[in-house]
Amino acid sequence: MIKFKCKRCKATIKAPDSTVGKNVQCPSCGMKHVVPRQPPKVKKPIPPVVWVAVGLILFVMAAWAVWPSSGSSADANAEEDKGPKEEIPDFDAEHEKRMERERFEIDRDVEDRSRYARDAVEKRRKEAIEMQKQRELLERKQREAYEAEQREKERRNKRPDPDKNRYE
Ligand SMILES: [Zn+2]
């Protein structure tokens, strides 16, 4: 059975398959029609409300995928897609920051140690110089004392009597 609509009165005309290509009268208004091979498809136009709803859903999904912070109850796929993309860079950045801080502290530590070592070496060098000065001073005093003693002896030998009296 083939069904089609009357072009004039829009009534539904039914005709057996065997009447394809033959004339048939509209039962309602009497207009003559050639029975079509296939019934013309009546497309139901999609109501604009549906398009608006689809557009809204797509927009929300796109916004959700782009939005940086993770929502509480979201599409599971969007959540899975988003998770690693955001968490790994954050972890890397945190790790990099920590490494940077550690490198800085190590550098500072090395700097401090080398400065302390330099200072210690300098201090020891000054101490050594000071000790050397003291030693030289002591030696000079001993030498002077010795020389004075020698001179005194010589003087005593030249003039034995008065010196003997004075020193004994
Ligand atoms: Zn008709």
Q: What structural keywords apply?
A:
168 residues, mainly alpha, two-stranded antiparallel ribbon, 4 strands, 65% helix, rod-shaped, binds zinc ion
Please sum up the structure shown.
With 168 residues, the protein is mainly alpha-helical. The protein has helices at 48-66, 76-158, 160-167, and strands spanning 2-5, 12-15, 23-25, 32-34. The chain folds into two domains: 2-34, no CATH class; 83-168.
Task: Explain the layout of strands and helices.
Blueprint: E1 2-5, E2 12-15, E3 23-25, E4 32-34, H1 48-66, H2 76-158, H3 160-167
Antiparallel strand pairs: 1-2, 3-4
Q: Can you put this structure into words, describing what you see?
A:
This protein is mainly alpha-helical and 168 residues long. It folds into 2 domains: 2-34, no CATH class; 83-168. Helices cover 65% and strands 8% of the residues. It has helices at 48-66, 76-158, 160-167, and strands at residues 2-5, 12-15, 23-25, 32-34. α2 (76-158) packs across α3 (160-167). It is rod-shaped and about 180 Å long. The mean pLDDT is 83.
> CA-to-CA gap between the ends?
165 Å
Determine the number of helices (DSSP H or I, runs of at least 4 residues). Answer: 3
Which strands sit side by side, in order, in the main sheet?
1-2
Helical residue percent?
55-70%
Ligand kinds: zinc ion
* Number of separate domains: 2
User: Beta-sheet strand percentage?
Assistant: 5-15%
Succession of helices and strands: EEEEHHH
Silhouette: rod-shaped
